[in-house]
Amino acid sequence: MWWSLAWRNLWRQRRRTVVTCMAMAIGIAMTMAIICFQDGFNSEMTRVMVDQRLGHIQINHPDYPGRRSLHDVMSGVDARVAALEADETVSSLTVRLNGPALVGGEKKSEGAFLVGVDPTREDAFTHVSTMVTEGRYLSKEASQEMVLGAELARRIDVNVDDVAVVVTQGSDGSMGNELFTIVGLLSTGDERVDRAGGQVHLRDMQALLVLDDSAHEITLRTPDADSIDSTKASISANAGAADSVVRTWAEVDPQTQKMLAMNQSMNFVVMMIVLVVAGIVVLNTMMMVVYERTHELGVLKALGMKPTGVLKLIAMEAMCLTTVSVALGLLIGGLLDWYIVVQGIKFMDGDLTFAGVRFAGRLHGLVDPVMLLNIVVSSYVIAMVAAGWPAWRASRMLPTEAMREV
Amino acid sequence: MLLRMAFRNLFRNKRRTLITMTAIAVGMALINVTITIQHGSYTDLINRGVSSIAGHVVVRSPGFLDDPELRVTDSAAHAKRLASVAPDAVVQRRIMLGGLLSSTSGSAAVQSVAVEPEISRDIGSMYDEMVSGDWLETDRDIIIGARLAETLDVKEGDKLVFMGQSGGEMTSRLFRLKGVFKTGAADVDGFMVVMPFAAGQEILGGNDLATMVTLHLDDAAAWPAAVDAAQTAFDGTDVDVLSWKGALPDVDAFITADRSIGQGMLFALFIIVSMGVFNTFLMSVLERTREFGVLQSIGMKPNQIAKLVLVEGALLGFFGVCMGSLLGVGLSYPIVVSGLDFSESMGEGMSNAGVVMSTIVYGAWDIPRMVVFAFACFVVTFLAAIWPAWKVSRLEPVKALRNQG
Predict the structure, then answer these.
(1) Using CB atoms, which residue from A100, A107, A356 is nearest to B109?
(2) How many CB pairs under 8 A join A and B?
(3) Same structural domain for residues B236 and B161?
(4) How far does B165 lie from chain A, in Å, by closest CA?
(5) Hey, of B26, B107, B204, which one would you mutate to test binding to chain A, going by the most A CBs within 10 A of its CB?
(6) Among candidates B18, B31, B24, which has minimal Cα distance to B369?
(7) Which of A342, B50, B192, B290 pairs with A5 at a CA distance of 20 to 30 A?
(8) What's the 3-state SS for chain A?
(9) Can you give the residue ranges of every domain in chain A?
(10) Of all residues in chain B, what percent carry a pLDDT higher than 90?
(11) Which of A389, A402, A387 shows the shortest CA–CA distance to A296?
């Protein structure tokens, strides 16, 4: 009975209700679209920084984190890997040996971040073979092959099938000099790789740096993001992590973690700004509802409706209003999101480099159900707060005075 | 007369007028604050980009984009010619050179910038970010980032060997670490080194080469004239003359993109505010149907009534915008004066489009855009009054009087 009364009241001023609903629905839809775009940005950032570069957990030599020196390697890597892969809290892992080197073609050379990897594990971990734009990825066995960042290759004027000269300082202080065949070019979105990076087989790198059976980092992924901390604790006891330091990706790169967290909180700021403005519109409407029905509410009270009843009636009307608005907002916002996810938004010509990550000029959005729920709940909360004051006023009116109003 | 009536009408329902004005003002103030923060961070980004990796006017080799190793020859002559364009401005030459830097305990891939020490110090550069040691003095000095110093395990006075390639020849050169800088951005602190211009030329060997010759103005806003003058001065030579926009396409593109995303957000706010205003307006008119009927029956013409409603809308818009501008300026003022500290969310520093950004963003007034948005806000409020005004003007007095509204 109450609900149908509130519902019918809502449509007595059809035009006003429609306009109010539209204002709120547009607010919700716009918030959804902005957040969808922002989450698309975040997911791309996560894909490059976390999925490719950082992993969930890293194991290093205890001195490596601060100075990242060539000498801070973990020995007995093969045994460590075997021990870690036996652990069921680890879903996948990759081993990396970093060798900064001068990489040159015939005429030019550049300093590069070369990484020695086990091609099978690295590909299973980062799917790097899908990011090879020309040529192919490294062979499973060590054979003096190299994949090079596409931008770096362009700068030193080399291409697939060319030979690159790699000059670097080995762990014994000697200058190493080695020839590699370039088998593929990489375009990963990670500027450090694309502009100044490359990969060779772990065994080749170990030979070049005179660091047998060693690596700088063992990077692992846990089955899901929530189990990172618990896995970190259990891994520390694993033989694979003996005499080394175990860190989560947030500890390895607090800056990226902070950035992603800031983007998340920006979502809330945007949502609150838009919804508060929409809330003012609702407040206005509900005030009018009470004002124009003063007489009628007085009659209801005179007939015996309690103040709480009036409060309930007005609140329910606001509920109905919000429900219609939210439904409409989800519909419009859903269409916008669908477009942003499928078509993407072209926000600039060319690519954008931000915090070491290259974003395509056309960015595809992402819909986060949790955020969607947040929007819906916040809409209700804000609308109820906005309706609270008029409803409270209505409940406190004296029937005699109210009925005197026209 | 109309104005006075409109005023009084607005005052009759103080609460509603106040709420509507608040909606306009809050929207307006948010827009102002957003614009101020945006403008401040863009200005910072441009200034830093210009002083660290470009100039207001940049002279470089035509093929530079395809091959950053292409350099201009006879750089001293170019510098002289560029200096003649704007006598008060500073001209500097730089060489960018990739290579491998080795100490006794390790080596690292680096990007070196060779600068003229005194000039570079004066226009704002890594000199401002120094945390220990001294700025470049002799040809043997080199300055590196803090992260790189840790990796190579070196301190001031230690030997470093830079190895690079020029024209197919491997060259190495000995340096001594003179000082260490720290920007907070890991990719800069672990990758960049600064060496004297003479040393860079020596590594390249002959021909007075430079990657770019740049002009730095005191008054950044004067760049278009300087670019024009430089283009005339260099007419007929085989070099490219660009503005900072041309030399920093990433920065320019980032600003354009960020601004358009911001614009989308402001647009959303705009629509919501205008719907709120429209709604209130429509209501305030409909509930006064009877009153308008009376006005009509005592001889007021329909278009006068429409005018009355429009004037009310204009007044509401005007005061809402005034209130919003005051509120916006008030809220932005602390951001302009003491800045917003983003270090909590950005860490020690971050690079953006190749430029290190500061963690404290100072707002800057963007008067033209603020005026445009204030005007747009006013227009939108006014537009929201049009339909209600038109509706009222078509009322029939008899029916309107009967309305108990």
Answers:
(1) A100
(2) 204
(3) yes
(4) 6
(5) B107
(6) B31
(7) B290
(8) CHHHHHHHHHHHHHHHHHHHHHHHHHHHHHHHHHHHHHHHHHHHHHHHHHHHHHCCEEEECCCHHHHCCCCCCEECHHHHHHHHHCCCCCCEEEEEEEEEEEEECCCCEEEEEEEEECHHHHHHHHCHHHHEEEECCCCCCCCCEEEEEHHHHHHCCCCCCCEEEEEEECCCCCEEEEEEEEEEEECCCEHHHHHHEEEEEHHHHHHHHCCCCEECEEEEECCCHHHHHHHHHHHHCCHHHCCCEEEEHHHHCHHHHHHHHHHHHHHHHHHHHHHHHHHHHHHHHHHHHHHHCHHHHHHHHHCCCCHHHHHHHHHHHHHHHHHHHHHHHHHHHHHHHHHHHHCCEECCCCCEEECCEEECCEECCCCCHHHHHHHHHHHHHHHHHHHHHHHHHHHHCCHHHHHHCC
(9) 2-49+256-404, 62-243
(10) 20
(11) A402
| B253 with A278: Cβ contact below 8 A | no
Indicate whether B77 and B160 sit together in one domain.
yes
* pLDDT band for position A108 (cuts 50, 70, 90): confident
pLDDT at B12 over 80: yes
- The predicted pLDDT at position B349 comes to 65
For residue A277, what pLDDT band results from cuts at 50, 70 and 90? confident
Q: Are residues B74 and B221 in the same domain?
A: yes
Question: Which residue in A107, A191, A356 is closest to B167 by CB distance?
Answer: A107
Which of A15, A277, A406 is facing B272, going by the closest CB pair? A277
> Where a domain ends, among B194, B222, B247?
B247
Best residue in A17, A73, A102, A114 for a mutation probing chain B (most B CBs within 10 Å): A102
Same domain, B295 and B184: no
* C-alpha A353: how far from chain center: 16
Predicted confidence at residue B325, as pLDDT, reads 92
Interface test with A, best of B165, B255, B331 (most A CBs within 10 A): B165
Whether residue B87 is found in the same domain as residue B226:
yes
pLDDT in the model for residue A349: 73
- Collect all residues of chain A within an 8 Å Cβ-Cβ radius of residue B344: 258
Q: Is A160 on the interface with B (CB under 8 A)?
A: no
Structure confidence at residue A334 (pLDDT)? 96
Q: Quote the pLDDT of residue B348.
A: 63
pLDDT per residue over A197-245, tens digit each? 999 999 999 999 999 999 999 999 998 878 888 888 888 888 888 889 9
Report in angstroms the alpha-carbon separations of A328 from A278, A334, A381, B137: 14, 10, 17, 68
Give tens-digit pLDDT for A302-337. 888 888 888 888 899 999 999 999 999 999 999 999
Residues shown for chain B: 405
pLDDT of residue B405: 42
Distance from A70 to chain B by nearest Cα, in Å? Answer: 6
Closest residue in chain A to residue B163, using alpha carbons only: A102
Minimal CA separation from B350 to chain A, in Å? 6
> Which of B227, B247, B267 corresponds to the end of one domain?
B247
Cβ separation B351–A100 shorter than 8 A: no
Q: For testing the chain B interface, which of A155, A167, A263 should be mutated: the one with the most B CBs within 10 Å? A: A167
B353–A155 C-beta distance less than 8 A: no
- Name the domain count of chain B: 2
Q: Is A34 on the interface with B (CB under 8 A)?
A: yes
